[in-house]
């Protein structure tokens, strides 16, 4: 039993160390932050990040800890991301990657390439995470979504978010159509950037006025076009979540779901709705252990361990690499 308790943290440590070691050895240096200041210090950073990943895995393998530690680690991710950006923009170029700056608003992952006519590093990174871990971008990796998660802190309202699909569909259409028009009419970069900033500020307002009150991630669930893309494309990844027959319809799990994915109709169907991000918060609220992960024919516990292994490892690796 003791070995089982440490097998997941050890696996995360080894995977994170391997991934970052490949970056250190195969990618032109300096890619890792520490390497930009002291030669070969990247190896120390790799060790620290791998230990961090192992610690997170140790904490999150207990379902009761998931909501708390997911919030903590996701917040750490965003703080690191935006702190590096702020320091870099203040004149310390070593904190920035080379190349063009990417406006740190998730919508730009979609609209940016349409407007510019070429893919960005963030777009490629986003697509890669969906392939590897399905919807984990929207619960562990989005630098913007962590703030919506904080805004929705507390016991979630059981009130259903109405017209969710219609609103999501309208917004993603407007973003795509708007980006096409901006490119078509050759609108200057400054004007396009100001429009994008306005979109981002509107998202923050939604967090303050809606997520904070409803205790649900209204921004990520209804407003963010990247969240909509994740909802639609996540099934290219084989991980799933289901509710087995031991469920008593007590509805306690809905108090833990920030993504409006466990409403009565969803629970009766035996699976969360399309907006589920497999975050696992609901497991802490299910007293009958009825909510389970699925990965092909794997036992549900092994499926969850595999999901945690991939998601936490990707989260830890991105902390070391995700810079603008």
Describe the structure.
The protein is mainly alpha-helical. The chain has one domain. The chain is 60% helix and 3% strand. It contains 13 helices and two strands. A two-stranded antiparallel sheet has the order 1-2. The longest helix has 26 residues. It is globular, with a radius of gyration of 20 Å. The N and C termini lie far apart (43 Å). The model has no long low-confidence stretch (mean pLDDT 92).
Features:
two-stranded antiparallel sheet, 324 residues, 60% helix, globular, mainly alpha
Short description, anyone?
With 324 residues, the protein is mostly helical.
What topology emerges from the helices and strands here?
Elements: H1 2-26, H2 42-60, H3 66-89, H4 107-116, H5 121-133, H6 137-141, H7 145-151, H8 164-184, H9 189-214, H10 218-223, H11 225-233, E1 239-243, H12 264-269, E2 291-295, H13 300-321
Antiparallel strand pairs: 1-2
């Amino acid at each position: 039993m003791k070995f089982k308790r440490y097998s997941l943290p050890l696996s995360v440590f080894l995977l994170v160390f391997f991934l970052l070691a490949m970056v250190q050895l195969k990618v032109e240096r300096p890619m890792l932050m520490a390497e930009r200041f002291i030669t070969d210090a990247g190896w120390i950073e790799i060790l620290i990040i791998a230990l961090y990943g192992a610690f997170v895995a140790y904490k999150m393998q207990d379902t009761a800890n998931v909501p708390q530690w997911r919030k903590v680690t996701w917040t750490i991710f965003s703080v690191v991301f935006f702190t590096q950006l702020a320091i870099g923009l203040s004149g310390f170029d070593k904190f920035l990657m080379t190349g063009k700056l990417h406006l740190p608003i998730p919508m730009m992952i979609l609209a940016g390439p349409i407007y510019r006519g070429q893919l960005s590093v963030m777009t490629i990174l986003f697509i890669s995470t969906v392939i590897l871990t399905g919807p984990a971008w929207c619960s562990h990796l989005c630098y913007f979504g962590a703030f919506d998660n904080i805004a929705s802190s507390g016991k979630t309202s059981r009130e259903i978010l109405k017209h969710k699909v219609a609103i999501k569909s309208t917004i993603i259409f407007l973003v795509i159509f708007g980006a096409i028009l901006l490119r078509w009419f050759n609108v200057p970069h400054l004007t396009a950037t100001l429009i994008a900033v306005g979109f981002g500020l509107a998202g923050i307002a939604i967090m303050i006025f809606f997520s904070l009150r409803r205790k649900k991630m209204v921004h990520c669930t209804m407003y963010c076009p990247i969240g909509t893309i994740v909802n639609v494309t996540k099934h290219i990844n084989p991980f799933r979540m289901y509710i087995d027959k031991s469920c008593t319809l007590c509805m306690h799990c809905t108090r833990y779901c920030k993504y409006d994915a466990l409403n009565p109709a969803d629970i009766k169907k035996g699976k969360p709705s399309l907006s589920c991000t497999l975050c696992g918060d609901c497991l802490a609220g299910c007293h009958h252990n009825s909510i389970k992960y699925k990965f092909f024919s794997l036992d549900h516990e092994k499926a969850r361990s595999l999901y945690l292994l991939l998601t936490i490892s990707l989260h830890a690796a991105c902390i070391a690499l995700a810079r603008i």
